[in-house]
Amino acid sequence: MYAAVILLVFMCLTATTHADHHQQKPCHLPNATGVMNVMDLKDPVNALGEFTYDSTGNKLRFRSYENFPNASRYLDLLMFFEEGILYEINSKNQSCEKKKVQHNDHILRIPKDAQFLSTMTLGNPSAVGEGLEFSVWTGSMADNTGKYVISVTKGCLPLSSTYYGGPTNVILFSFMNLQSEIKNPEVLEVPSFCEGLPVEETVNRFLEVLM
Ligand SMILES: *[C@@H]1O[C@H](CO)[C@@H](O)[C@H](O)[C@H]1NC(C)=O
Ligand SMILES: *[C@@H]1O[C@H](CO)[C@@H](O)[C@H](O)[C@H]1NC(C)=O
Ligand SMILES: *[C@@H]1O[C@H](CO)[C@@H](O)[C@H](O)[C@H]1NC(C)=O
């Protein structure tokens, strides 16, 4: 885990060094399916699972694998970024908690006011099939409590995003096995047992439920 963070910090430093200053607009994340890993250095939450993202509706479902070694908790979340609504779902006992979110810190999408840092390649850029080109973006979190760094592929699929709110307050997402389509759109619907629930709690940011 620390190795991953060190790698990321190194990548960011290198990215800054190589930054060119062409005006670039953040790309628009497409519909996406894949595997997401969440790591939190403080707790540490470590969850690996499947995600589905609908870019038109701007909503995300994440269900972590229960049998992932040393997973600190099982997460099943449905996030509506536009509406600022989040469901924590428990399919086993068919229960659900609905939360209102005040600041929209998006986990996958690059905010419109993000700053372009650099384009880089993981692996070998000069051998076909050996390199993965990606671009790195940064900015301040919606409630100004820290910074984020997001990297995406040429097709704007997310690779990793990191949120820094201080030395012990780091949360890191990485994305794998990506596809730019939605295979099971039904996972993005609010389960029937969650419908019509009142808001139980207001949280500051989407990230809080993961920390
Ligand atoms: C899980 O945690 C235990 C105890 O901390 C450790 O011995 C083991 O190596 C960990 N397993 C994995 C796969 O990280
Ligand atoms: C369902 O299970 C979760 C986790 O075990 C628990 O926190 C929650 O209170 C349960 N809800 C109901 C309605 O039983
Ligand atoms: C993304 O997926 C949703 C749900 O399947 C669909 O309604 C929407 O049209 C798709 N958007 C794009 C840009 O393909």
What can you see in these coordinates?
With 211 residues, the protein is mainly beta. 8% of the residues lie in helices and 44% in strands. The chain has a twelve-stranded mixed beta sheet, with helices on one face. One 2-acetamido-2-deoxy-beta-D-glucopyranose (NAG) binds next to loops.
Quick recap of the structure?
This protein is mainly β. Helices cover 8% and strands 44% of the residues.
Keywords:
mainly beta, 211 residues, 12-stranded mixed sheet, 44% strand, binds 2-acetamido-2-deoxy-beta-D-glucopyranose, 8% helix
Residue-averaged pLDDT, rounded? 85
Spatial strand sequence of the major β-sheet: 7-8-9-10-11-1-2-3-4-5-6-12
Distinct small-molecule ligands in the complex: 2-acetamido-2-deoxy-beta-D-glucopyranose
Return Rg in Å: 17 Å
Strand content: 35-45%
**Number of helical runs?**
1
Distance between the termini: 16 Å
* Mass-distribution shape: globular
Overall number of strands: 12
Question: Tell me about the biggest sheet?
Answer: 12 strands, mixed
Q: N-to-C SSE series? A: HEEEEEEEEEEEE
Parts with pLDDT < 50 across at least 5 consecutive residues: 12-17
How are the SSEs ordered, and which strands pair?
Blueprint: H1 2-17, E1 32-40, E2 46-54, E3 59-64, E4 76-80, E5 85-90, E6 95-103, E7 115-123, E8 131-140, E9 147-153, E10 158-164, E11 170-179, E12 201-205
Parallel strand pairs: 6-12
Antiparallel strand pairs: 1-2, 1-11, 2-3, 3-4, 4-5, 5-6, 7-8, 8-9, 9-10, 10-11
One 2-acetamido-2-deoxy-beta-D-glucopyranose (NAG) is lined by residues 90, 93, 95.
